[in-house]
What we know:
Elements: E1 3-9, H1 14-27, E2 32-35, H2 39-52, E3 62-63, E4 74-77, E5 89-92, H3 100-105, E6 108-114, H4 118-133, E7 137-142, E8 149-154
Parallel strand pairs: 1-6, 1-7, 2-4, 2-5, 3-4, 5-6
Antiparallel strand pairs: 7-8
Amino acid sequence: MGKAMFYHLTQRPLEVTLAMLLEKSLQAGWRVCVRGCDGARMEWLDQKLWQMTPPEGFLPHGLAGGAHDALQPILLGTGGEKAANTPACLMAVDGAQVSPAEVQAMERVCILFDGTDEQAVSAARGQWKALTEAGCAAQYWSEDSGRWQMKAEKAAPDAP
């Protein structure tokens, strides 16, 4: 059973934190689905991720709806259905919803939200409450100090 990890973005923009988390996920051997709410925003994010890739690295990804979706290590899309690339990790951005069943089925779920947007903070609080009340393990991470620190954790009811 996986866990939901909430990332409260206050120092770095979404694309920088997302790229860091995607690199770590690929190092863990996971395929990833990045879920957003708006197709145009996902296209923008796709372009940002290509532009940010360092010369010595490579962050292979694509937008959902292409001929090779099932082969993509990282697939960006807006659908709530299971991604074609059979991900082990789901990253939700811009308020995209995640169900308790998805958290329990994945190795990891990351929920990234803009800490300068009160609506996004409120939505993330609602997701935390819904997921933890459904029995999902969760961690809340903040970068207020300039580096990522875990500020809260809720274990699953059957966890030791």
